[in-house]
Amino acid sequence: QEDPKFEEIRSFYNIFKKTFGNNLELSILSTKRPKSKFLQFLLAKDEIITTKFVIFLLKYEPFKAIKAHTKALELSCDGIIWLTAWPAFIWLASNKSLYQMQINLLFGLILDIVITALIKAAVRRRRPSPTKNLLSTIGPDKFSFPSGHASRSAFIMVFFIMIYPLYPIFWAPLIVWCFCVCLSRVLAKRHFILDSLCGFLIGLAQAYIITMLYISEQNAIAMVSNLSSDHLPGGSE
C-alpha cells in the first residue's frame, strides 16, 4: 500500500500535468533543448564533413605534424594560461610605454572568455569526443561551439598585426600559429569544423570591438597605477 503522502503528490502531479499539457514530463526530464530541423541538418552535415576532412588531411605529413603538436598548440592559446601570465607580464615589465597595449589585450582576453562561455552555455553542442582534461569538463567549456582557442588565437593575431602592429617579420609566424591552433582543434577531435570557423570569426569580431573601445594611454596608466604597490596597503608613500 502506497504512503498517503506519496498518493497526494501523485494526485497533484496528475492535475498539474493535465493543466499544462502532456509534454510536461518530457520537458522536466530532458536537458536537451529542441533544435530546428535546419539546425539539426546543419550540425549533422558538419559532423560528416568534419570526419571526412580529418581522414583526408591526416594522409599528409604536414597535417600529421600539426596533430602531433596539438598539446603544445593547445597550451599556447589556453585561456587560463593567458589570463594568469599576461597580468604577471604587466607587473614584471612595469613599463608605462607598454601599459596601453597590455591593458587593451587583457580586456580583449576577458571579453573573449565571457563571449565564448555565454555562447557555449546557450548552444550546448557536445564535443566530437570526450576529453581527459578535467578543466574542459567543467562548466561551459565542456561544450564544443564555438572554439575558444580559435577565437582567442584569431583575436591575438589581429591585435598584434592591426591594432598594435609588431614588426612585419612577426606577422607570418602569427598567421601560421593561428592557422595551426584552429586546425589542430579539428584534427584532435576537440571541435567540429563549424566550431573552429565560427570561433575564428568571433575572434575577428572581438578585435573590432576592442578597436571601438580602445583604452587610451592615460587611462591605461591610471588603471595599472591604481593596482600597483604604491596604492596598496603597505606600499610606498
UniProtKB/TrEMBL annotation:
One Pfam family here: PAP2
GO MF entries: sphingosine-1-phosphate phosphatase activity
This protein's record includes keyword Transmembrane helix: yes
Residues passing through the membrane, by range: 72-93, 105-123, 197-215
InterPro entries: PAP2/HPO, PAP2/HPO_sf
Span of the signal peptide: none
UniProt keywords, alphabetically: Membrane, Transmembrane, Transmembrane helix
Domain Phosphatidic acid phosphatase type 2/haloperoxidase: 100-211
Record has Transmembrane helix as a keyword: yes
SUPFAM superfamilies reported for this sequence: Acid phosphatase/Vanadium-dependent haloperoxidase
PANTHER family the record matches: AT30094P (PTHR14969:SF13), SPHINGOSINE-1-PHOSPHATE PHOSPHOHYDROLASE (PTHR14969)
Name the record gives this protein: Phosphatidic acid phosphatase type 2/haloperoxidase domain-containing protein
Species assigned in the record: Glossina morsitans morsitans
